[in-house]
Recover the amino acids of this structure.
């Protein structure tokens, strides 16, 4: 039997935090004279009431949790946050159904950025702030998970990032709390710097803050239906490119920088690979666009770099309908969705370190084919990769392919056309945001999809965000057999 | 330095066989009064001349080859056969360019079945027979490779099928020759049975033979532009379904059946998985079509079973434009392309045994997550899978994904639209034949693609047919460093 008390305790803490968070949009709406402040206040009351009740009834449980509890807690954290985070969307002026509200909320906390809301430019500031806040909280949440929880659970090769000092799963909760404190200040600081830069470049303070929160979280919710294209400002574009990249590198390395150690950041092979793939894709596609179109190179580079970085990091802003770029651009955007950023960042996808591990394994295979009796050792960051990490990463990759195919087939069965189904599955499992094609591409919206598709897509976001295994293990009979 | 003499000797034998093979369409064209018999005779003369010259000049080399030579020989066998097999296409009435002729020939010997020829119904019998012969020879060729060569080269987990009696790569050539003899009679016998059945069901003897050869080879070249839809005959459809399945099971197991041992065939887990995936897909899509359309169930079942089995086994016949089926059908056909048949058959794709190994590995991962200190062993056919086989299979899967993405990106760069590029890459790397969409779907043709795309697609066919590593290893600098 699983002891639910420590799980409920943490969920209670999360819900209380969420409730307090809802007071911010309530204040903003009240200040701007929008009646929606009552909606946020009521949602805050519900969340706080249930949150505090959970804390009070479960406060005497153990603070140590086992592996099973950790899996359940991780998945439930995201599901419960999304479920309660949806309340303001449902009761506000927007009048969304609960399906739409849950989709929007899940898209927020998983930092995906797909939206069902049309008319953002005229939406009340409270709702806009709430969307940004959900992504911002989802972003810090996933960093804490990726650094303090997943490596101990040995999910998908994340044990590669296990710290020497803590290798017992019983200490998950204390460690997570300790790490969250340290990283929280950093995260807040980066957000403020980004917001200030955006304000100087021409956004209003509110727009700057809203976008800074969704940029550092590589989330991609915007305050305009046209996303960043609305601002049509090169400085804003390049500031966002910089901070989308900042959001996709391992945050632990920034802590080293703060302590004066720059070396770990600049010598990390994951960072190198990320930058090489991003730069290579940007230059390749920019040259192709320059060559085939009639744009100046500076424009081709600006639009390409923004949209490529946005898709690859899984942010999901857009400044152009790259769907119309044709040629190599569309398959390139499709495959870049899967790449993602670094482990321990706010971005999703297969992730750079897994591509490195898989590349090292293939390299060893090639050498082994030519010298069957030779001994070759795959390496990551110059250190040998332990065998269990390799098989864990490889299993992740295959599972990713299977889940992706399952989502795409499911979306097809629900009536979506080929490009919508295949790119929609990609965009949710990699937490990107927009997909390809006319329906849910950068110029489209998820609003018109059938409800069943929205639930499936929401599940896909959760699956991708929690590295598949964390969610799927709950569906294995042996999980519940104990 | 690589000793090319044994390689050239085998290539000489292959070219001579090809030359002799060209005499068959020459006879058929001569008998039907078509002047193309001269083209076949001339092509035969060229092939025989070069083939015999290679044999004579290299006959004193060693009959033992090392690993490097085996890789080179395998790849060159397919390239040289395709290059010379293209001659009749180029010089015949069809007047194809060498690009088109090479594409058609490579599509033949790799048993892919994509075609650039329009007007098959009026084409001379010699050309039709030659297309079938290329696929038929490609089919037996790949079985011999898969059983006698690839397991020893340890390509992509094929070492799982290594026979106990022979584990030294030096004996590759004698073993291949010995095995080819045994399997050749079986292959011929199955072809004759299939041809007779098709003739009884209503095809002309020529059509029956032509289709029997491309069915057992899971190749898919037809004698009509409308493929099997031309005959509109349920008996023919079901006979072909049966023999496409026969072509996709491990041929070694048939040898056991001939010796009176039925058990290995019926108890092979690869065979079970293949049948379950095929049957599951057919029933699922047939029910969906029956439910959403206005067909009788028997019709829905007939068209679905034929086209699903054709795509999954990589045969590539069609009796309907499934491109118009919409909904789940199109993504289902897309993912089924990748599945393929069993190892040691004429079919291609990722192959069933690899999916089994990957599934077993994921299953072990799941158990390991819940019990980090437990010991779990992945199994195939009830036997533990050695670790090197697992990593070999997993590397293959990742490499397959990378090569697929590379091909799709390349096709996009050459100007193909999204569905043509992504499904075209899938259909060549899995040796299927038709792709999806209007251009190269079941109702389209590859004729209108740019030449550069045809060369890239031809390379993709070769890559897929020879299990990726066999070809790619030649591009590694350490291969040539010695």
């Amino acid at each position: 039997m699983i002891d639910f008390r420590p799980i409920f305790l943490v969920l209670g803490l999360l819900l209380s935090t969420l409730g307090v968070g809802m007071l911010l949009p309530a204040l903003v709406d009240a200040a701007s004279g929008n009646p929606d402040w009552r909606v946020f206040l009521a949602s805050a009351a519900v969340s706080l009431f249930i949150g505090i009740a959970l804390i009070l009834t479960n406060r005497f449980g153990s603070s140590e949790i086992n592996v099973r509890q950790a899996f359940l807690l991780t998945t439930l954290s995201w599901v419960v946050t999304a479920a309660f985070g949806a309340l303001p969307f449902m009761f506000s002026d927007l009048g969304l159904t609960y399906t739409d509200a849950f989709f929007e909320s899940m898209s927020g906390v998983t930092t995906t950025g797909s939206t069902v809301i049309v008319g953002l430019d005229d939406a009340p500031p409270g709702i806009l702030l709430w969307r940004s806040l959900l992504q911002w909280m989802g972003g810090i949440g996933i960093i804490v998970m990726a650094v303090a929880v997943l490596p101990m659970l040995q999910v998908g090769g994340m044990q590669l990032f296990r710290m020497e000092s803590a290798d017992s799963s019983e200490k998950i909760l204390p460690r997570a709390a300790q790490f969250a404190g340290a990283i929280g200040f950093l995260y807040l600081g980066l957000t403020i710097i980004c917001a200030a830069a955006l304000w100087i470049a021409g956004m209003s303070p509110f727009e700057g803050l809203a976008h800074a929160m969704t940029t550092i979280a590589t989330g991609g919710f915007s305050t305009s239906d046209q996303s960043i294209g609305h601002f049509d400002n090169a400085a804003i574009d390049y500031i966002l490119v910089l901070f989308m990249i900042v959001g996709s590198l391992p945050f632990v390395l920034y802590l080293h920088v703060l302590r004066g150690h720059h070396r770990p950041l600049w010598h990390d092979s994951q960072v190198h690979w990320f930058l090489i793939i991003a730069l290579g894709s940007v230059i390749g596609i920019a040259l192709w666009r320059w060559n085939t179109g009639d744009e100046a190179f500076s424009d081709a580079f600006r639009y390409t770099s923004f949209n490529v970085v946005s898709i690859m990091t899984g942010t999901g802003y857009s400044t152009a309908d790259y769907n119309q770029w044709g040629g190599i651009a569309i398959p390139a955007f499709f495959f870049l969705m899967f790449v993602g950023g670094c482990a321990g960042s706010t971005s999703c996808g297969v992730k750079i370190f897994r591509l490195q591990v898989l590349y090292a394994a293939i390299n060893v295979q090639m050498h082994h084919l030519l010298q069957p009796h030779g001994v070759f050792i795959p390496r990551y960051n110059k250190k040998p990769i332990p065998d269990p990490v390799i098989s864990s990463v490889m299993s992740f990759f295959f599972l990713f392919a299977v889940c992706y195919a399952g989502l795409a087939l499911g979306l097809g069965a629900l009536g979506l056309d080929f490009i919508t189904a295949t790119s929609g599955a990609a965009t949710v499992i990699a937490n990107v945001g927009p997909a390809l094609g006319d329906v849910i591409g950068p110029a489209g919206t998820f609003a018109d999809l059938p409800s069943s598709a929205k639930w499936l897509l929401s599940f896909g976001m959760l699956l991708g965000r929690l590295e598949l295994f964390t969610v799927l293990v709950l569906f294995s009979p042996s999980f519940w057999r104990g």
Chain A is about 65% helix and 0% strand.
